[in-house]
Amino acid sequence: MFAIIGINGNTGSAAANALLDSGHSVRALVRDPARAAAWRERGVELITGDVTDEDALARTFDGVQGAYALVPPNPHHPEPLTYYREVATALRTSAGAAGLERLVFLSSEGAHLPAGTGPILGSHFAEEILAGAIQHVTFLRPSFFQQNWRAVLGLAREQGILPSMLQPLDARRPQVATADIGETAAALLTETAPPMIVELAGPEDRSANDAAEAMAHALGRDVAAVPVPREAWEKTLAGAGLGRAYAKLLAEMYDGINSGHVCFSGAADTRRGRRTLEETVHSWAG
Question: What is the reported pTM?
Answer without folding.
Answer: 0.97
